[in-house]
Amino acid sequence: MDNLNDLRFFLCVAEQQSFTRAAAQLGVSPSAVSHTMKNLEQRLGVKLLHRTTRSVSLSQAGERLVQEITPLMSQIQQSLNSLGEYSGQLKGQLRINATESAYMYLWDKFQRFMHQNPEVQLELTADIRMVDIVAERFDIGIRLGDGIAKDMIAVRVGPDMQMAVVASPDYVERHGMPQTPHELHQYQMLSLRLPTYGGLLTWEFLHPEDGTLVKIQSRGRFASNSVPILKKAALGGLGLQWVPLYHVEAELQQGSLVEVLPNWRMRYPGFHVYYPNRRANDALFTAFVAAMKET
């Protein structure tokens, strides 16, 4: 079991590229991680890591070891999880990567799943970018259906997502309402900053008459990489926000926000839970997917 723990430490260091960050993930001291890695290298007789004062990177042997043991460690965890069937209680851990919006939309289902399965551990990572869940050692991803790799098992867990442009009543009173998306550049557009290349999210619309796609590059005085922060800005009268409709339904009903261009709403395929096909028969995965599909 010590050897398995050493390999678990190694995979965490490989992912984090830092003893300090790996130690924080594992709940031990950086010196303990460093000592474990040194002992592992001595036992194997090969150098797995290149160390500098600021970072840790994989050697060629380390890269090969990561590629070969990652699926094996996943299989071991899957086998351990399946033992819960004999006790009548699901056990194990799921590391999930999804957008902040997906977590907000599915939160009630996450909460119910946790209450129903007290032996299950969930670790949720919020990420706007599309990640390789296998390479980054996540068990499950949740994204809109049109962005998922074809080699993954994908299960739809929500209806089509509608986008809405919203603003505070005060902002609309002061600046008026645009009649088409092409007029948006005359207003302050609250822009979402994307993590991949640092660009701003392009707003997309469907023409109400012929269904053609209209794209408008967002620009304005205010940008953030956080949807909730942009929502605060919209509520504060700083401009227009393009946002999933379910994010602002309560505010629209209360009247603290009003919808702009309602006939031009864009629709995207709904959220999907996805994971590698080797996990298809895992009891924990099956139960989690079923919980996310519940209405």
What does the largest sheet look like?
Answer: 6 strands, mixed
- What oligomeric state best describes the polypeptide chains here? single chain
Mean pLDDT: 90
> What value does the Rg take, in angstroms?
23 Å
Structure summary, number of beta strands:
15
CATH topology of the largest domain: D-Maltodextrin-Binding Protein, domain 2
The CATH architecture designation of the largest domain is: 3-Layer(aba) Sandwich
> pLDDT below 50 for ≥5 consecutive residues: which ranges?
none
Structural class designation? alpha/beta
User: How many independent structural domains?
Assistant: 3
Return the string of H and E elements.
HHHEEHHEHEEEEHEEEEHEHEEEH
CATH class of the largest domain: Alpha Beta
Number of helices: 10
Strand residue content: 15-25%
Shape: elongated
- Report the end-to-end length measured between terminal Cα atoms: 41 Å
| Percent of residues in helices | 40-55%
GO molecular function: DNA-binding transcription factor activity; sequence-specific DNA binding
Protein name: LysR family transcriptional regulator
Keywords: DNA-binding, Transcription, Transcription regulation
Family: Belongs to the LysR transcriptional regulatory family.
Can you tell me about this structure?
With 295 residues, the protein is α/β, with parallel strands linked by helices. The protein folds into 3 domains: 4-69, Arc Repressor Mutant, subunit A (Orthogonal Bundle); 89-148 and 270-293, D-Maltodextrin-Binding Protein, domain 2; 161-268, D-Maltodextrin-Binding Protein, domain 2. It contains 10 helices and 15 strands. The strands form 4 sheets. Strands 7, 8, 11, 12, 13 and 14 form a 6-stranded mixed beta sheet that branches. It has a 5-stranded mixed beta sheet with strand order 4-3-5-15-6. A two-stranded antiparallel ribbon has the order 1-2. Helix 2 packs across helix 3 (30-44). The model has no long low-confidence stretch (mean pLDDT 90).
